[in-house]
Write a structure and sequence with these properties.
Length: 743
């Protein structure tokens, strides 16, 4: 049994709180218990745990663009900048019963239930009023049978899972999005109510069956341990991508003020009689075989291969709506007479037939074989100096939350209506109309503009030749035992390919993607909205050098130390800080993006120490140092050599502090201290008390950036710095007291 508690009175102020002069109420509670014992002596046992967490964490609301725009925001929006809080609550239950009917058999039944609620979406560019409330539930039940024989072991396991993720907008009403004038909708601040895209319902439930078989002590040119297994999984996948509420009005903002009328609005529009929830039975099959081969006292090899196969009917059997196909092959209203929209796309390098599905021209990949090789060479045969390495391929999955967009976007779309505006050119028509204040009065008024047609409906289309994303990894290193110390030096490289990414399919009538420094957002499918196409093409490359040394803590020596250093070099073909972002609209195709450094810290050092103290106290410390994390962005500075005035860019901001000596070279610094006291109460009853001091020196580990890349074709990299009133990684200096009992 254990419990701890902290609140704002035992922590330092965040940068935003220092700026405002007051703290936001916050707290951190953790509590729980574990209980176990015999049901039948030496035959059956039970074990149960419960853990509860309640957080109310401080967070900073800061502008999503250059801070100079803050002064131009309306007073009501400006008042929502600064310190805010994000509540979180979790309940985690776990129970297990095991039974050994024979000396060779063990049956185990487990159940797990996780329930989480949180408020999310607050921070950079988003005020608390535009947040969303999230509920996560995860139920998982497992029955497992282990059987052992003299030369083999088998584990048969059946699982049933039921997990759902359901974010919902915290408030209902109009959303107001203030964007930087002259940018590609760069969001300065969103207020009012969260986008309809913030409300989702995604989950999966269903059974799986897995069997793993191990042969022991096979002798052939050494000793072999052969492992093989297979897994079959049937799960119903469910996804709803948006809610039918909260239209979003976009306003131009400059450092001098905000426009009085919006230049566009985005809102949800459902198709009568059709469900906005997509559902499919996903079938997954996997099999593997592996050989742990001890050739002799020096050389050990690990050889294996895995195969995976997955069928997602909602993608493979999907039929592109006939109305969409007809519209694509109709006259492009912006092109010369006789030129279809498909021909305009072709001029821009987009063969739309690669995305039109008839229900029979999509096939799941059948040859996702993943070979793996590893070795360890013990130089002296005494495990003191070992050279190790390996290489292998592993396949990821195209998640259903992406594949379902073809279906859900056609049922619950998010049309965009542009308002005739001198600063945002559009051709008068169904999606380009004069502004009227009546549009602020409710969602029904906006839906009536396009209710009788498909006008403004976004059309998502995924390539028919969908590949499975995969990664190739190779590593080489050496472990050494020198006295009481264990050391390791390893170099590894990971390259990932074929990540799925959504791009803007629209093209101007001459096939161009950029014209007058503007993308063809207004040149969507005739009678519909924009065309969004998905292809494989995201790539990442990461090289790391890992160096570590450890002197393990023992009761005899009374102390222990670990030191770990990591050098990281990463590159990818995107322009966002978020490596999971699957939207790339700033170039015609993903292949037009250059490879740029990723958002990682180049150098990172972590060291820990443990030492016995007087009166039975145990002292521990952890020091973490890292160089600044690179900022990745689409840097817009009206560059004459770039058709859109923007280029993907990575900038490393200057460090914010030093450690003992040197200049401001670190972007992250943290020193945590801990002292623990154990008590024996009586017999098998004991207790412990632990005091943690987190971030002892209250170092500010900034997580947000000030980005103003320049103007008039002049790039200013030096202008990218950490935001001194933005969010920080981890916590300010905080005291935490934990107590527990064991029996």
């Amino acid at each position: 049994m254990f419990g701890n508690y902290t609140n704002q009175s035992v922590r330092a102020r965040t940068p935003a709180e220092e700026d405002s002069g007051k703290k936001i109420p916050s707290h951190n509670k953790e509590y729980g218990f574990a209980l176990g014992g015999p049901i039948i002596q030496d035959k059956a046992h039970f074990f149960a745990t419960y853990e509860g967490k309640e957080f109310d964490q401080p967070i900073s609301v800061i502008p999503g663009g250059p801070s100079t725009y803050t002064a131009g925001l309306p007073a009501s929006a400006r008042a929502q900048l600064g310190a805010a809080s994000q509540p979180f609550k979790e309940n985690l239950y776990f129970a297990k019963i095991d039974w050994e009917p024979t000396d060779r058999d063990r049956i185990e039944v487990t159940g797990k239930y996780r329930d989480e609620t949180a408020v999310s979406g607050i921070g950079t560019g988003t005020a608390a009023s535009a947040s969303y409330s999230t509920k996560n539930t995860d139920k998982r039940y497992v029955i497992r049978w282990d059987h052992s024989a003299d030369a083999w072991f088998n584990r048969l396991q059946a699982t049933y899972e039921n997990a759902f993720y359901t974010p919902t907008a915290t408030n209902l009403g109009n959303g107001y999005v203030y964007t930087a004038f002259g940018s590609n909708d760069q969001q300065i601040l969103a207020t009012g109510a969260a986008s309809p895209l913030a409300s989702q319902n995604k989950g999966q439930k269903g059974p799986s069956l897995q069997d793993d078989f191990t042969f022991n002590n096979i002798e052939w040119h050494g000793d072999h341990v052969i492992k093989m297994g297979a897994k079959i999984k049937w799960v119903r996948l469910t996804a709803q991508d948006a809610g039918e509420f909260n239209p979003q009005f976009f306003f131009d903002t400059t450092p001098d003020g905000t426009a009085t009328t919006p230049y566009k609005v985005l809102f949800p529009l459902s198709t009568p009689g059709m469900s906005p929830v997509a559902s499919t039975i996903d079938r997954q099959i996997g099999a593997y075989i592996q050989d742990d081969w001890k050739v002799d006292d020096h050389l050990t090899l690990n050889l294996g291969v895995r195969w995976d196969y997955e069928v997602t009917p909602s993608y493979h059997d999907f039929v592109t709506p006939a109305g969409v196909v007809a519209a694509i092959n109709s006259q492009d209203p912006a092109a010369p007479t006789g030129q279809t929209y498909a021909q305009s796309l072709a001029l821009g390098g987009v063969n739309v037939n690669d995305y039109i599905s008839n229900g029979h021209n999509r096939h799941p990949p059948r040859y996702n074989f993943q070979p793996r090789f590893g070795f360890a060479y013990d130089i002296n045969g005494d495990e003191e100096h070992v050279i190790h390495g390996g290489a292998g391929r592993s396949y990821d999955r195209d998640l259903y939350q992406i594949l379902q967009l073809e279906q859900t976007k056609s049922v619950l779309s998010q049309p965009t209506i542009n308002f005739i505006n001198a600063n945002h050119a559009c051709t008068p028509g169904p999606t380009c109309i004069p502004w009227d204040p009546v549009y602020l009065t409710g969602l029904n008024t906006l839906q009536a503009l396009v209710a009788s047609s498909n006008t403004g409906k976004e059309v998502d289309m995924i390539t028919n030749n969908l590949k499975t994303p995969y990664s190739d990894q190779i590593s080489l290193g050496m472990r050494n035992k020198i006295g009481e110390w264990n050391t390791d030096v390893t170099v590894q490289s990971v390259k990932s390919f074929d990540g799925l990414v959504f791009q803007l399919g629209n093209r101007y009538p001459d096939g161009s993607f950029w014209k007058n420094k503007s993308q063809p957002w207004g040149n969507g499918i005739p009678g519909y909205g924009s065309l969004i196409i998905a292809d494989n093409g995201l790539k990442t490359k990461t090289t790391q050098v890992l160096v570590s040394a450890e002197k393990p803590y023992t009761a005899e020596s009374h102390w222990g130390v670990t030191v770990a250093y990591t050098y990281t070099k990463s590159r990818f073909n995107h322009d966002t800080q978020d490596l999971t972002d699957q939207y790339a609209f700033d170039a015609a195709t993903i292949h037009d993006y250059p490879f740029i450094p990723g958002p990682t810290a180049k150098h990172r050092l972590v060291t820990t120490g443990t030492v016995d103290g007087p009166w039975g106290l145990l002292f521990a410390a952890k020091l973490t140092l890292a160089t600044p994390t690179a900022s990745v962005n689409n840097a817009c500075y009206d560059a004459v050599n770039s058709p859109n005035g923007c280029v993907p860019l990575t900038v490393v901001p200057p460090g914010t502090g030093k450690f003992l000596v040197g200049g401001k070279v670190f972007g992250y610094r943290d020193l945590d201290l801990q002292v623990t006291k154990n008590f024996k109460v009586w017999d098998n009853l004991s207790a412990y008390v632990r005091l943690d001091v987190l971030n002892v020196f209250n170092w500010k580990n900034y997580n947000d950036y000030l980005t103003d890349f320049g103007s008039n074709g002049v790039l200013n990299r030096n202008s990218v710095v950490y935001n001194p009133v933005g969010n920080i990684i981890d916590v300010p200096r905080t005291l935490k007291l934990t107590a527990g009992i064991r029996f």
